[in-house]
Amino acid sequence: MSQDIRQLQPTALWNKFADLNAVPRPSKKEERVIAFMKEFGENLGLETLVDKVGNVIIKKPATPGMENRTTVVMQSHLDMVHQKNNDTEFDFNTQGIDMYVDGDWVKAKGTTLGADNGLGVATIMAILESNDIEHPAIEALFTIDEETGMTGAMGLKGGLLSGGILLNLDTEEDDEIGVGCAGGIDVTAKRNYEEEETPEFKIGYEIKVKGLKGGHSGMQIHEGLGNANKIMNRLLFDGFEHFGLRISEIDGGGLRNAIPRESKAIVAIDAVKEQQFLSEINQLAEAIKLEFKTTEPDLTIEILKTETPKHIMDLGVQEGFTRAVYAAVNGVYRMSADMPDLVETSNNIARVLVKNGNIEVGCLTRSSVESAKTDLANTLRATFELTGCEVEFSGEYPGWQPNMDSKILKVMVPIYERLNGEKPHVAACHAGLECGILGQNYPDMDMISFGPNIKGAHSPDERAQISSVQKYWTFVLEVLKNIPSEK
Predict the structure, then answer these.
(1) pLDDT tens, 147-158?
(2) Which domain of life does this protein belong to (predicted)?
(3) Cα–Cα distance between 322 and 372 in angstroms, integer?
(4) Which of the ends of the chain has fewer CB neighbours closer than 10 A, N or C?
């Protein structure tokens, strides 16, 4: 890890981020980072507890003169999205993140950086460790498994926290103060099929879609980025329609909250149609790359001859499957009628896996309107059930309804204006924040979300802006100084 990171300002925050990023912390495998955080709190002599699901809570008394202020819950999640480039050798289960400085940005070498939400965690750690930062009583809440189900927030019981204000440090634009977010639900379609032996007159090809940017399936769903699963399906559908292409295997995408960057398929085509197939599919590939030339300049589509697969998908199942993936909604479904430029409802076809007689398609559907979320989930369900799939809904979490009368919002807006000479963007976001879930057991808590500029979250292009972290840190300290008194 570059020592340059530890020299950045504010050094207290960047040093804690470096410490944190040395600890492997994949979602659902947070044992090491939980132990790390527990030891951190105990070594400071602060009240530290780990709840039944693994959330860590560290409590620090107010600094002198701030005892009558409202207790503040500072909250971030411990886990991070694990994504890497195909040519990057890296084991997220054993290695710390390899970071470096590139101008005004901190980046990772071929992997996600973990700034989401590691910078929030590091902020809280730096404040807990400080001896010279003014603040009211703090309850630091470090949740687990935010990225793959929010089970930490869901499992947090009422009564563990007494704070009246919650500062969620998981927003990725430094000029934004978040007051609401979308809810989500996982939609998973599955079915079995009979494999057929590949006829002798067919030959094998491998199709690869790669080089896409990927990114956050909520915050970046409106940017027109390519979805590798949808692009692959276009190629397969065309090959089937014109050249009798038969599918043997597909492996596309990965994490439910990441826009798929890559997909690979093994197919069989009629040997006598090989040249026609290559001409047609390469023309289609060039047309697709032309469509995405602005948003996805590095998109690559490879069609490579390979060993003929022994088995292919049942013809009827393949026909229904490719039509279902074509018909399934991907991207923005509806924009908000109440908040300008806010995506209300969307879907990400995150994972497509076809192998050994099994199909699985995984989607993450988001909406800030619960009824719209259900509507789109049912649309997807109907699409896949028409092809014989069984569809399961899971991992549902609620949105966070905006409160424009928030007392802490009224404190933070003028502070931001005074520090930066401009108004902040007060908005809801199309990502899943934990505030909506936490509010179920703490309904009277006044919540807000903010953070520094983080670009490319959930992808190996993830990067954190150094100057923005400095701006954000100053804002955090001023907010803590001006927390209102308890009444």
Answers:
(1) 988 999 999 999
(2) Bacteria
(3) 26
(4) C
Separation in Å, CA 483 to CA 137, 317, 366, 434, 472 = 10, 60, 33, 22, 17
What distance in Å separates the CA atoms of residue 451 and residue 115, rounded to the nearest whole number? 10
Do the beta carbons of residue 366 and residue 373 sit within 8 Å?
yes
Do 60 and 74 have their domain in common? Answer: yes
Of the three residues 367, 397, 427, the one that is the final residue of a domain is 397
The pLDDT tens digits for 232-257 are 999 999 999 899 999 999 999 998 88
* Set 139, 146, 238, 446: catalytic member: 146
215 φ, ψ (degrees, to nearest 5): 135, -170
Q: How far apart are CA 208 and CA 202, in angstroms?
A: 19
Residue 292: what are its φ and ψ, rounded to 5°?
-100, 15
User: Residue 373 and residue 379: Cα distance in Å, rounded?
Assistant: 10
DSSP state at residue 149: T
What distance lies between CA 422 and its chain's CA centroid? 29
Placement of tokens 């002198």 in the chain? 64
Token output for 144: 């687990």
Q: Are 74 and 124 in contact (CB under 8 A)?
A: yes
Q: Is 79 a catalytic residue?
A: yes
Q: For residue 408, what are the contacts with CB-CB under 8 A and spacing of at least 6?
A: 165, 167, 446, 447, 448, 483, 484
Helix 315-327 to helix 370-385 angle (10° resolution) is: 160
Span 426-455, pLDDT tens digits: 988 898 889 999 998 999 999 999 999 999
What CATH number corresponds to the domain at position 244? 3.30.70.360
Mean pLDDT score across all residues of the chain: 95
Both tokens of residue 263?
Answer: 């997909």
DSSP H or E run through 32: helix 31-43
Q: How confident is the model at residue 2 (pLDDT cuts 50, 70, 90)?
A: low
Residue 19 annotated among the catalytic residues of the structure: no
Phi and psi at residue 281, to the nearest 5°: -70, -30
Q: Which amino acid, residue 409?
A: L
Average pLDDT over residues 405-411: 95
Residue 228 domain-assigned (yes or no): yes
